[in-house]
Write a structure and sequence with these properties.
By secondary structure, this protein is of the alpha+beta class. The protein has ten helices and twelve strands. Strands 2-1-5-4-3 form a five-stranded antiparallel sheet, sandwiched between helices. About 5% of the residues have low confidence.
């Protein structure tokens, strides 16, 4: 059976409050009742001591007894005076207690005062009575008993209980109203979270709930918003990755179709003697070139997966940076000249870099080829310098540059800017810069890009020195 949280909250609040009020009421009633009877017993004890004192000091004890009898009669108090044998020698009122129990008489003989707050055995309406010993010159000569009907005390207690009942009812009504308001407030906040959760389940990740540091629900809302934000980011990344995956498949199909078609055509031509003898060598060279291109595409993907799964082991050593940059210049000069570009090396011969030689070459060749690809009639500068605890390499070109919105995206797997979808001899699948980023990270280094559309791009790479790594 479904039991709404609102009624659970309301029931628990009211239950706790009413239970507390009932316990407090019972304790308060018991306390008041004891207080009333104790006050009555103290009053009777006080009168009893005064009577005995005045009797002892007065020459006419009967006159004193009559005088006190008249006074106490107005206060609905009766008293009796007993001798040493517990026989009454003086009594006021017809309803006075005329017989003392044996155990009570034994107590006052020992000098103790006997107090009975409520007694219903000796009179129909019940009385409160006090029995005091009468000691004269150190000798027990009798006792005095003062009694008062408990009707008056019960009336006071009944009136107090009536007021207490009104108080409990009013407090319960106020508690019910406050509990209703508080429960409704909390349920409203929880329903907001429930509605937000329903919207998220339907695919709306833009929903947010009000937060506060007031209580756990407010903190839950804050955590909920953080969760939704992360979900939204994850979904955007998944959607972007899915789009890039589709584009990747399209690029794979496109990039592989051309070399495969070329290779297939050359093979068929040679097999069917459709290619002249003078052209066979050129056809074989073309097939070989396209085959190498396919191998490079496959290796690039395998390389990325190895790096991503931490299967690449670096063999770091101290390398002369000028030698590396000169080798890169020599390897890429022909490609640069095809686009009428010039490669310039600017590095001191004493600059050393602590890195894996093969992977460092892969990083720098990839970035330099990227600069050549997007530069026409320009200059590509390979610059190296030694800084405190690190070696910095800059690859600068004055090509077409990168749009500011594209800079953060160039490191993504499968990402390729629209202009780069032209025939690119390296990084056909948009994995080149992603691999570069991973390799630099493996070297505990950093790579940054600054670019201005139409004014060129600068790739800045920082590699920690051996001393900086604590080696």
């Amino acid at each position: 059976m479904k039991f709404k949280y609102f009624y659970q909250q309301l029931g628990s609040h009211i239950g706790v409050i009413i239970s507390a009020l009932l316990v407090l009421s019972l304790l308060f009633t018991h306390f008041i009742e004891n207080l009333v009877y104790e006050n009555k017993a103290d009053e009777l004890t006080s009168y009893g001591k005064n009577i005995l004192t005045d009797i002892e000091q007065s020459q006419s004890s009967r006159a004193v007894l009559q005088q006190y009898g008249n006074v106490l009669l107005g206060r609905d108090i009766q008293y009796s005076l007993f001798d040493t044998n517990s026989a009454i020698i003086y009594s006021t009122g017809s309803g006075a207690i005329t017989k003392i129990q044996e155990k009570e008489w034994q107590k006052i003989q020992k000098g103790y005062t006997v107090v009975v707050k409520k007694d219903f055995k000796r009179q129909e309406e019940g009385v409160t009575y006090v029995l005091l010993p009468y000691i004269h010159q150190g000798q027990f000569v009798g006792g005095i008993l003062l009694a008062s009907p408990i009707k008056g005390s019960r009336d006071i207690i009944s009136q107090i209980n009536q007021y207490l009942l009104y108080t409990v009812l009013i407090a319960s009504a106020v508690a019910l109203l406050l509990s209703w308001i508080l429960s409704a407030f909390h349920v409203k906040r929880l329903k907001r979270l429930q509605a937000a959760t329903s919207r998220i389940s339907s695919g709306d990740y833009s929903v947010r709930t009000p937060t506060s540091d007031f209580d756990e629900i407010g903190e839950l809302s804050k955590d909920f918003n953080l969760m939704v934000q992360k979900l939204q980011t994850s979904m955007e990344e998944i959607e972007g990755l899915e789009n890039r995956r589709r584009q990747f498949i399209a690029d794979v199909s496109h990039e592989m179709r051309t070399p495969l078609t070329t290779i297939s055509g050359v093979i068929e031509g040679i097999r069917n003697d459709m290619i002249p003898e003078s052209e066979k060598e050129r056809g074989m060279l073309l097939a070989s070139k396209e085959t190498k291109r396919l191998i490079r595409l496959v290796n690039e993907n395998l390389d990325y997966e190895k790096i991503r799964s931490n299967q690449v082991k670096l063999n770091k050593e101290e390398i002369q940076l000028s030698e590396v940059l000169e080798i890169i210049k020599d390897q890429l000069d022909i490609q640069a000249e095809e686009k009428k570009n010039q490669i310039i090396v600017d590095v001191d011969e004493n600059v050393m870099i602590y890195a894996d030689y093969d992977r460092l070459m892969q990083i720098l060749i990839n970035i330099t080829k990227n600069s050549i690809q997007f530069t026409q009639d320009g200059i590509i500068t390979l610059r190296g310098m030694k800084r405190q605890n690190e070696t910095t390499i800059e690859i600068e070109d004055n090509g077409i540059g990168i749009d500011p919105d594209e800079i953060e995206k160039i490191w993504r797997r499968f990402y390729k800017a629209g202009v780069s979808r032209t025939a690119n001899p390296y990084g056909e699948f948009g994995l080149g810069l992603s691999i570069v980023k991973q390799l630099v990270t493996l070297h505990n280094g950093q790579i940054n890009v600054t670019s201005e559309k139409g004014n060129g791009t600068i790739f800045t790479l920082s590699f920690p020195s051996k001393e900086g790594l604590g080696g």
